[in-house]
Amino acid sequence: MQFEEDRPARVADEELPIYNFVAMRKHSRAYPADARPLTSNPLFNILLLTICLVVTLAPARAIAAQTSGSASNVPGLYKPAADPKAVVIHGNARFTILTPQLIRMEWAADHKFEDHASLVFLNRRLPAPKFTSNELQGSLTIKTDALELNYHPAPNSDGKFTADNLEIKFTLNGKPVVWYPGMSDTGNLMGTTRTLDEALGSKTKEPIGPGLVSRDGWTVVDDSTRPLFDSADFGFVRGESSPWPWVMQRPAGDRLDWYFFGYGHDYKLALSDYTKVAGRIPLPPRFAFGTWWSRYWAYSDQEFEDLVHGFRNNDVPLDVLVIDMDWHLTFGPSGTEHPLDQSGHSKGWSGYSWNKLLFPDPVQFLKNMHGEGLKTTLNMHPASGVQPWEDAYPAMARAMGIDPTTEKYVPFDITNKKFATNYMNLLHHPLEKQGIDFWWIDWQQEANTQTPGVNPTWWLNYVHFTDQAREGKRPLLFHRWGGLGNHRYQIGFSGDTISVWESLAFQPWFTATAANVGYAYWSHDIGGHMPGAVDPELYTRWLQFGAFSPILRTHTTKNPDSERRIWAYPEPYSDIMRSTYHLRYALLPYVYTEARRTYDTGVAFLHPLYYDWPEAEEAYTNKNEYVLGQQMIVDPVVAPGDKVTGLADESVWLPPGEWIEWQTGAQFKGPATVKRNFSIRQTPVYVRAGAIVPEAPPMQYSSQKALDPLIVNVFPLQDGQNSTYTLYEDAGDSRAYQHNEVARTEISSSEKGSELTVVIAAAKGSYKGMPTARAYEVRLPGDWPPASVSVNGRALSYSPREGGTGWRFEGNTLATVITVPKTLVATPVTIRVTRSADLFARRAELNGFAGAMTRLREAYDSLNLTFPIAWSPDELVDAMQAGDRLSYYPEQAGEQLIHYRAVLPQAVAKVNELSRPPSQKDIETLAKRYKVNPESAEAKAQQKVAEYRDRVARALAALADVTNSQR
């Protein structure tokens, strides 16, 4: 077998300096010894020459570096040609063993194999794995540690792959599996689809495609007809002057190009290896994990400024302002019928020129938005090309060889490199200079481009994303899924869903399943898109899901009845939604750390349960649940609660291990399926015992202030247990993270008897803008108040007021809050907490206490609405105030818990007495007391009685949940 040698990329001769050393020597002799210029000094010349060579050759070295070794240290520089040691050629077939579980299988009638990067597979130069290759009597057998490939083409045949001449064997859970071409992948776990436009629940207009993982243990990706890149240099080390890899067709001829993934049920490894050959999942800018406002509405700049002030005045954080299509000329109200433009599309659907009626001074408007801490994006429908009325038309027409005086439009042709270059330089870059931070590409038109096999959605994603990389930015794109390989171009816009419970119920599964093709960042229309008004309960539940999803972006259509401003909703919904927004911002350090882990591992931080528990049937059947990072399982409520009790019933599967229901403090041991119910204030989130979850202090946008104090939640550990979590930080908006300009802070906790130790290690690494010092707030939920607390060996005193240095106790959540003053991040902090041995032995009494306090408050609020018929009995008030008393008197915690358990059944008994409906005499008394017209007294009193019964029933349901959890 012959292998083509790898040759380092060559730098053109004209790019290197040419020095005439003879002339330099003559020049140095032309001056008297004491009058020669500095350049006549031989030592100086040598130094100068060395500096010039280093500076000139630096880009060449960067390029050469990516051509040597198995993979480049320069992000975006790939090697599409595999290591020759990993290649076996047999007749018209070539097999490349990329990993022990991943084999590329090529067949070419002309014996010419492909070493260019395809649109999906960029980097085949992985370290050659161990394998054996044996040829015997015309047959070939390749064995790795995981797979056995047998290829036995018939004598005198062309050897094209068929079920008769090719098979791969492996073992799955101790049982043999044999794959052959044409075999049906019945266990495929699916991937994602281009859009959820007009989707009603799971009824999508476009089918969901196959994923890269399967319960059958294998998948095959057919890359045979997918176009290629003419270069695999996506490093863009020369900025906008860097070469721009472009699409090219595969050579004509009969050929096959398949990738066999035989990873069994090691789904994480399959996806990790996929990103090694197909490129990493990039880390979005940190601001993208804040909240986004979006609405299809013809806003004026004044309305936008009023809207943003509404967010700030109502204490609702916001990071991204999405400006829909009416920012540009639309020639009338959007959504109405328009005449067609020269391209055959609706006039004004595409546009690149500001509507100066709505935005008289776009530059100042965008500056104002940036002053509010916001990033901005504009909606684009580029299918119409550039029409004659556009501001940029004359320049664009001339650049494309069209005489502007003809007013002939410039057709959209995104795979034409000349058009794409001018499209970015003349249409988009000027708007970016005005203040636009990234683009919402809302392609909804044709499915083809002028280049066969290239989908316009896919290529638009590529062009816009890499254009930002060439500009030196950390790229961010907002558009639909274009197909396999688009995991490299986040973030996904899932489209215009219908605002019904079925749509919400579909999205957790849909979002998690997209991880099966590496698509980690779906952004949904929170609240749905159409047709109009949405029920407050539905919107609240949708926001709760959004808070525990990759991107939290509200959206709706151009309907006056639609409303997404949370402060426009009645209580308690508005308050709950505000708390949900703040919870999302608190979680930003955790979410951002997990997003970095996604970049490092190739596994989306929101993913299905079966990645972690592949042999548990429940991990596949509980489709509403998903893993969110290392510490959490989320099972969002996606159905309305009971009309009387307000509680939503959930059946939750918990995997093996110890789990804590975050908002209630209830503890469970898995594997188990538990029946739970949740009020509108609660989201089912389960954390591992001992989980460490970093949080941020309250802020109005993600970069408003430094992460100071750093809030660290440490959930209860088992005796003898240790846990760790490493916080990740970087500059947030640059590509420096790809060059390891980052900081990592390890946080660990350990429990030994009644002593808990939490260590915040010194930060490792650095980045631009990194704080040198910060305060810490360590929160220990679900535990007894401490007997003593020390920080770095110094005792910390009890300080009941929030904000002071010391420790305090929040009784409703049983949380000890330890405030550590500002400390150098290079200095480790050790916190030791001891609890009374007697109380520590009674730890089981605390199980679910936080949830009980929530339910008792809900019962109290419900009963107080029955006035003047009734009111909350004192026994209920006594039980409800148990947590409050613990906050004031933590030293009495043991006695207070005993009292709480004694008064709770008395409270239940008293509320049960209220379930008796009012008598006729009571009704008559009410009518007389409130001077109700005798003719209408009966009807109004009966209505009041019906409301009374419902409110008492709601209170009893809340109390039943409390008493059940105490057993």
Question: How would you describe the overall organization of this protein?
Answer:
With 967 residues, the protein is an alpha+beta fold. It is 27% helix and 20% strand. It has 20 helices and 38 strands. Strands 29, 30, 31, 32, 34, 35 and 38 form a 7-stranded antiparallel beta sheet that branches. Strands 17-16-15-14-13-20 form a 6-stranded parallel beta sheet. A 6-stranded antiparallel beta sheet has the order 21-22-23-26-24-25, covered by helices on one side. The model is unreliable at 1-40 and 42-71 (pLDDT under 50).
Rg:
33 Å
Give the % helix.
Answer: 25-40%
> With helices defined by DSSP (H or I, 4 residues minimum), what is the helix count?
20
Helix/strand-derived category reads alpha+beta
Give start-end ranges of low-pLDDT stretches. 1-40, 42-71
Largest sheet: 7 strands, antiparallel
What is the overall shape? globular
Could you give the count of β-strands?
A: 38
Roughly what is the average pLDDT, rounded to an integer? 91
* Strand-residue proportion: 15-25%
Oligomerization state of this entry?
A: single chain
Termini gap: 74 Å
